[in-house]
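User: My advisor, Dr. K., asked me to get a structural model of this assembly before our group meeting. I'm new to this, so sorry if the format is off. These are the inputs:
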Amino acid sequence: MKKTYTILFILLVAVSLNLPAQNKLFTADDYLNMDLHPKSINNLSWRGNQDVFTFIENNALLQRNAANPSKTDTIINLANLNKKLNDLNQKELTSFPNITWMDDNSFYFISQSVIFKYDCPAASLAKANKFDKDGENITIDSKTLRVAYTINNNLFVAIDGVTMQVTDEKNSNILSGQVPSRNEFGIDAGSYWSPDGKRLAFYRIDQSEVTDYPLVNIYDRIAQASPEKYPMAGMKSQKVELGIFNPDVNEIVYLQTNGPENQYLTSVTWDPACRFIYTGILNRDQNHLWMNKYDSGSGKFVKTLFEETNDRYVEPMHGLSFLKSDLSKFIWQSRRDGWNHLYLYNTEGLLLKQITTGQWEVTDLLGTDLHDRSVYYESTMESPVERHLYKTDIKTGKTEKITGTEGVHHTIAAPGMNFFIDVFSSPQMSRAYYVIDQKGTKLAVLSEDANPYKDYKTGEMSIFTIKANDGVTDLYCRLIKPVDFDPAKKYPSLVYVYGGPHAQMIEKSWTGGAGFWLNMMAQQGYVIFTLDNRGSANRGFEFESVIHRHVGDIEIADQMTGVKYLKSLSYVDTTRIGVDGWSYGGFMTVSLMLRNPGVFRVACAGGPVIDWKWYEVMYGERYMDTPMENPEGYKKASLLNYAGNLQGKLLIIHGTNDNTVVWQNSLAFLDECIRQGKQVDYFVYPGAVHNTAGRARVHMFNKITGYFNDYLKQTK
Amino acid sequence: MKKTYTILFILLVAVSLNLPAQNKLFTADDYLNMDLHPKSINNLSWRGNQDVFTFIENNALLQRNAANPSKTDTIINLANLNKKLNDLNQKELTSFPNITWMDDNSFYFISQSVIFKYDCPAASLAKANKFDKDGENITIDSKTLRVAYTINNNLFVAIDGVTMQVTDEKNSNILSGQVPSRNEFGIDAGSYWSPDGKRLAFYRIDQSEVTDYPLVNIYDRIAQASPEKYPMAGMKSQKVELGIFNPDVNEIVYLQTNGPENQYLTSVTWDPACRFIYTGILNRDQNHLWMNKYDSGSGKFVKTLFEETNDRYVEPMHGLSFLKSDLSKFIWQSRRDGWNHLYLYNTEGLLLKQITTGQWEVTDLLGTDLHDRSVYYESTMESPVERHLYKTDIKTGKTEKITGTEGVHHTIAAPGMNFFIDVFSSPQMSRAYYVIDQKGTKLAVLSEDANPYKDYKTGEMSIFTIKANDGVTDLYCRLIKPVDFDPAKKYPSLVYVYGGPHAQMIEKSWTGGAGFWLNMMAQQGYVIFTLDNRGSANRGFEFESVIHRHVGDIEIADQMTGVKYLKSLSYVDTTRIGVDGWSYGGFMTVSLMLRNPGVFRVACAGGPVIDWKWYEVMYGERYMDTPMENPEGYKKASLLNYAGNLQGKLLIIHGTNDNTVVWQNSLAFLDECIRQGKQVDYFVYPGAVHNTAGRARVHMFNKITGYFNDYLKQTK
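Assistant: The format is fine. Below is the predicted structure of the whole assembly, which you can bring to the meeting.
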């Protein structure tokens, strides 16, 4: 007996892209056709403190004044830039380089490890600094053009063309100036110039006790071992310190961050006056944060400004954002009330005010105006699947929504917050660039690319919610109908899943956030379905952190709620449902296949985590604690324990040099399938890391498409 | 227009296995069902110098007298053996151990690193010697029960329970007592006790200059690098020496085998009087052999007995086989006249006589009778696809064929050569054990297992020849028709190929030499075809060595001659031909698929050599010289150069720890396919070396069968 399914959803968006002359279909090769990607404007940025924005077009650096945006001036074009390079006996460029504004009148760019400074009023180019051609982890101070960089494990700085070696560590397991903690906690730099450019704060990472993962490079005459340090959950991890290098006296001072080994140093921020430096000390358990202040000259601990704790985890993702007019105050982003909000503190650690509040999240803090009256930020206030620009008056709390049109707005703010570039996407507009003012008034249209797929057939995309099995929680779904949709037919369908923290698959942007390949699969005749389950991002702390210590459980339950909905659709063939995902989505795909045997006929999982004990410390322990602390959780999530359930076709794909989800995961899973006599399919991308790119990605799209076409498309 | 194909073959055998009650079909799991394997007799051997043979049955060591073979005596059973072990305070055994006869009255066996000696007349068991439980590369002198063994890279001996450390080399790249040259040249031991048991000859291998191949062990908590020395064609190789250890004085003397580094030391043989030791010095080019005599006491070079050279290669595979009554003479096996034959030499190096001659090969030398009147050997004299036992009178050259029935006879000779155990197989008899005399008279039937497949459907198997494209050379073929064969139908067919030297796929033994899986595929409805191309074994030097410097060319031509024949068969669907092979057969499979695009719809290659530059020095350079010496040959054979030709479905399978054909081969091929946008399928067996076993093998049979069933069986 077929159960009647009560459809618990609100249709939010139902957009058909049926336009005339739509008749072509994608091939996987079209992925490399840039005409099918939304048109972008290159190197868009504001000029110093002016309300003037610049960008590169036709190999020239152009500018417009936000107050008079219809007029375009050329600052300099490639021919003239090359002439000046020639005069300096430097190699000419084949395209206009990306530039960074230093102030109102000067910008710099890098070519062949030389930093060139261009003075606009003087129209003069000069070599300002240079660094070693093998330099990595480059940090440039945009006022002084001092540069920090690493060679192998050591740190160097170059000042006015003169190189200083900051560290001379012979132990190659001690790294200076590199990104610690595997880029978790929002850390994306290994060193930080002080606001005055006079000193450099840098991470020192001792990974002597971290085990090597044995990667192999097959591209040498004889394959070579190419081990990488990979701290696995529960194992010895990095020990991190923060040094301050003062080039004037050629001395390093280390912050006195004494504490247990393996603690994390996050949110590194210089005091605008350069006297102090702030860092969040997060314990390895990731449930206790101390926001500490240190004397940047002596490295001495000054005080703990505040602490944050949580039974599940605390996840500092940002530095301190100092006000502009009052340098004794800063804005701190925290999810301490369950949602990412802004808090005003002073540098003594006094909480002055919670600036924003509500059941939505600040997704990007742009900063304050010059007088610190209002703070500007993007948020999910309107809807979890939209992004809008808001301003909140710090004193009154009065909040205004600046952007209007439904969709996803990402904004680049002019320094004074009077103007913004609004980079906009919606299901009806792949990408547009507008100049707007504080009221959201559109001052100029810089670019509008409504539909790069206009010559192609596309399926009807809709975004809606269904209720989770708690009867309360809204879960966002995206459905793309196959092209040439006939409601009387029964279609195979493909569930595309990610499901892990830090990511949201569905938003009201172009094709609802679905990528090229999902649209290609809709062209191949599949119903394409995606659901952002509990555990995914931008829905608040509870929604995302509910997976703590038992990843897989709730995510699967929610995805199965989605499948139940999918099966309720008259045009879905309930016997031909497939599932596909990569990384956490690979873990989800294999989990869905094995923990609900018989539901999915075909699955394809890329770079899947198979057992969280093989994932790294920083991300892994946040959600799962250590294998010793949470043996049951690890056991329940380990897909080795479900291999015996395998029914249907499962293709696993892995990059042989994946240093995020290491190869051991899928190889051990294959081993278990073999032991249990379960057929599973496999493919590897030699040399690929945690994903594929370029031609390999086209190959992979064909590989996965072929697999679904061979085993899911046919009714047989 | 369809060409008429002239069938150039002689039907040699056409055996139908259609017996009543045949109705079952194999599943891959049946591979592990021992009832489907020809029945064997365990530990069959002759007792000392007596015409008495012994074997293990029902956990007892039994014996029969060849002259009166109907009577069976029990020497000792497990219960009594365990009683005696118990008396010695030793652990009891769960099954009767394999034994080795020391003389007429005593045998020894090993249990838990202890060597036990059993005296039959006294019915007494004693601990005779012991060695370290971690000992490897064990060589036991069966008279003294002295034992040589290795731990890590060093060599030890144990004499009467006392251990001596022979080498104490700290450089782990210098190995003593281990097999050199990757087991090529018939070398299967790392040390050799002198006939009197007083001294030990052993190999010393310096592989310091050999590169590591980066194997990985995924079975640890964190995958571990597990590098193995793997000398690749053209690269630095092993340096080998021979030491003689004298335990009486605790001294090692090394043979003065001075010569270029990387030469090979083959055919190591002690003089029966222990004064000299012989070894063949083969240059790295493998085209010049010096058979040298050394003083075993001083290590000094005495003389070169003879030399062998060949434009292609010389391949010494055996030691010297000394006569029994005249210890100044020995038999040497050589292919110097184009076929493997026996030559009588004296120890001064004088060639006394070529004993055997003709366009056939001696395949196994059993030895001479006690008076050295006749030599006994197996050969292909009757037919390349049969093996029979022969005796040749050394003086007169008179040759007699001893075994009668058509098929394959392998014989275990009694010491005096008066009696033989004839282990026989033919298409009508899976395996039989007979006691025969010098006339071939069957004195007793020990076992006859006609057809272990009797409850199963099997396809009709035939062996025949077709002419190669030279119009002259006979190529042996084996064809198995699908079960329930209907000549009016069109069947898919599967070409199973090996194609490389040292092997012959087809012989007149049980199912023509086809294994379990090929018979299973005939049950699945495929025509199964195999051809032994030029380059394969037992057809003479010219036939096998014609591939020299251009592997792939002639082998493919011959296989395509086979395919042409196959296509001429009315019941073969010419659009549904598949090909399958492993190792050299994997190389052949991919070569056939890529160098004849469109001929094969589906291919499956296991552990394939993709480019011979990634194969090892010893085997690789014999056939291909080095990449520097033969760049054109390497280039033409490299399958990377044909990846762009790929049409149809190709599945490649590799063991992740394959230390014979290293993983780099198939990974690099995948990489090239990806680069060229060619779809290829892949599977790996984690931890597997150059083949799979047990449950993994069953899994692999299902994997390959499924692949052919998915893509070749359907006419669609």
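One thing worth pointing out at the meeting: Residues 1-20 of chain B have pLDDT under 50 and may be disordered.

User: Perfect, thanks a lot.
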